[in-house]
Every structure is written in structure tokens, then in C-alpha cells.
Amino acid sequence: MNEKKNTVLMTEGGIFKNLLFFATPLILGNLLQQMYNAVDSIIVGNYVGSNALAAVGAGASLIYLLIAFSLGASVGAGVIVSQYLGAKEKEGVHKAVHTALAISIILGLILTAGGILFSRKLLVMMNTPAEILDDAACYLRIYSYGLIFNVVYNMAAGILNAAGNSRRSLMYLAAAAVVNIFMDLLLIAGLKIGVAGAAIATNFSQAISCILALWFLFRVPADYRISLKSLRIHKAMALRIIQIGLPTGIQNMVISFSNILIQASINQYGAMAVAGFSAYLKIDGFNILPVLSFSMAITTFIGQNYGAGKYDRMKKGMWVTLLMGIVYTVLTGILLLTFSGQIMRLFSEDVGVIAYGQTAMRYFCPFYWILAILHSLAGTVRGTGKSIPPMVVLLVSLCLFRIVWIQLVLPYYTSIEGIFILYPVSWLVGAVLMILYTWKGKWIEL
């Protein structure tokens, strides 16, 4: 293999083709990842029961909170690496990738320890129903042992994606998906060890994807190759990564906190509501993750073209990404609504669980295109290195607005619909703000 094969620069050629070829492996990889997360819940729901399904879902918002900051760091590293690659600065690429990986190892160890020590306390603070608390704490504690693999893999994937080599991430997630499904069937359906089996299976799969990604980075004949002896934190480079990644990390953490408040509100409706909503969130990912993939694709595209000084190409890429995101979310929203009953019955035959899941779908599915606009524009601006404006917009719409809604509006609702309607309304607020900034803000330095 040569360097050209392992590095894809999107500064030349057809914009639609560049973005589609880069985004497709990201989308497929995320769908694979979501698929094996969904399989976890399907197997748990069918072989253990609705309470166990609720227990697995109860900690989902906490898991995202634990990894939220590290995801921001991987975004910051990806922007820096893509800009250096676009500018063809080999020394900058070398320092960026080694600093990024070192940061991820440190963060991974800290988050693993934090998850193990505080998982049950956090679940209690969220008013997790008593009938599922023990299983939820067990799942979250065991899952936390694998956080180091999750964090390091996300950083490694960020480096690969910055180099335009998103196909590698797809290959490694495919391997992880096969391992996860096999381990689920063995541990849950076969050995009958319940929610602990789901957590162990996920940890094994994340370890596999992490090891494979690192193995490739240690061997690839390209500027972003990792050398063990060069693995260190370069102070100036770390500050650049943190400068870009910190706003995204803070944004992710604060949004995760708002989602925890939402989950706490849902917990008050009982285990069936928790089970139905958590089951739907596994389906929700088949819309959300591709939207985030488009956002990641345009961030890399913008980063490379910004580094190369091709500003007109950046704007055209933004419009192409908006079109792809809107078309995808409209089509999938229609499909999910059409087959909502059949989809929910995959997770449980319990009428209550199915009803809550279908209610969520009616409020979410018609409006994912709004979320596509929000994240496509945020990814566009973020690719120039200006990560603070998207952070502010996302914090205002997906956190502050939601908290205000929970405190001031939700008390007037007597049913769970007051929570579900909050999602599309907050997406709309964010999309409007992001459109205004992209239109009027000075995010391209001419």
C-alpha cells in the first residue's frame, strides 16, 4: 500500500462524489454500530424481559456523558489533522496524531475509573425506578471497564477520517458488530447472564475495533502513521487541539446533562416508559448517526479545503451536504413511521413498551430533516476551526432551551408527550440560530 491510497484529499474533483464516497463508510459504520447496540436491546428484551430492557436503556444518557468530552477532543484533533493534510505539512500531521492519541489514552483511563466508581450514585440521582436500579447499575459499571477502548477508538477513527480514510473505520466497526452479536447470543441467550452479558459483549466488541484501528495506524505508510516512541503530548499542539475540541467537548457534556434531566423526567413514568423510550432510541440512532456522519464529512471536507485556501469549494460542499442530509432524513422518517408497530415489536411484545415507543416515533420521525440542517451547518463552520459559534448554538437549543422547557412548560403536560415534543422544537430553535450565523457570521476568513 502507498500513502496516496491511504490518504484521500477532497481538495480536488467532484464535490458530491467526494462527500458521498467519504460519508458512505461513516454512515455504514455508524449504522453497524447502532445495529449491534439495537441487537443488545432486542436480545435482552426478548430473552430477559422488559425490565431488563429498561435497565440497559436507563444508563444510555450517562454513558454518553462519560464519553462526551473525549468525542470533542477527537473532533478537535480531526480538524487539526485535516487542515495539516490539506496544507501538506508533514511535521504538523506527525505532532497532531501523536498528541491526539496520547490525550485519548489519558482521558480513557480517567473516564473508566469515574464510570466504575460513580455509576450507581448517578443512576440514583436520576430517579431510576427501583425495579430496574440494580440491573442498570450492574450494566453501567461493567460497561465502564470498556470506556478506555471506546475513547481510544474514537480518536483513532477521527485520525483516519481526517485523512479521508473512512473505509477503515467501517471495516473495524463491521468486525466489532460481528463480535458483539456473537457474544450477545452466547452470554444472554446461551449462558443466561442477563444485562451483564450485554455489557461484556459491548466491551469485547469495542476492544476489537480499538485494537484493529491502532494496528493499522502503527503500520500505515502515510504521514499520519503512529510510532510508539513518538507518542507524547506536544504542548503547543495539545493547546490547539483543546482550543478547537474543548468547545465541542463542553457542548457534548452539557447537552448530555440536559438529556439526563430528560431521562429523569421519563423515569417518573415507570419502567415501561423507560423501556419503550430506550428501545426507540436504538431506532433513533439510524437517523441521528447518519446526520452526524454527514456533519463529520463536511467538517473534514471544509478542513482540508480551508487548509488549501479553496473558499468557494467550501460553500458548495455545504450546500451538497445539506441536500444529502435532508433527503436521507425525510426518506427514513417515512419508513420508520410506516413500520413503527413492526419495529417496536422486535424489542418487546409488551403492549405498554410498544405504545410508548410508537408515541415517541410520531413526535421524532417527521422532523429529523431539521436536525440535518442544524448539524450540517455546525459541521461546516467547525471545519474552519471556529468551534465556539456551533457550540453556543447547540448549547442554547439542545441544553438551555430544554432545561427551561422542563422547568416551565413540562409541568403543564399530564402525559409523556410533553417530553417528546421538546425534541423537535429544540431542533427547530437550533436550526434557525445556525442558519442565521452561517448567513451573517464571519466564519470564512477571506
From TrEMBL:
InterPro entries: MATE_fam, MdtK-like, Membrane_Transporter-Flippase. It is a multi-pass membrane protein. The chain crosses the membrane at residues 15-32, 52-85, 97-118, 142-163, 170-189, 195-218, 239-266, 286-307, 319-340, 360-379, 391-413, 419-439. Pfam families: MatE. This is MATE family efflux transporter. Its main location: membrane. It comes from Hominiventricola filiformis. NCBIfam families: matE. It is found in: Cell membrane. Keywords: Cell membrane, Membrane, Transmembrane, Transmembrane helix, Transport. GO terms for cellular component: plasma membrane. One of its GO terms (molecular function) is xenobiotic transmembrane transporter activity.
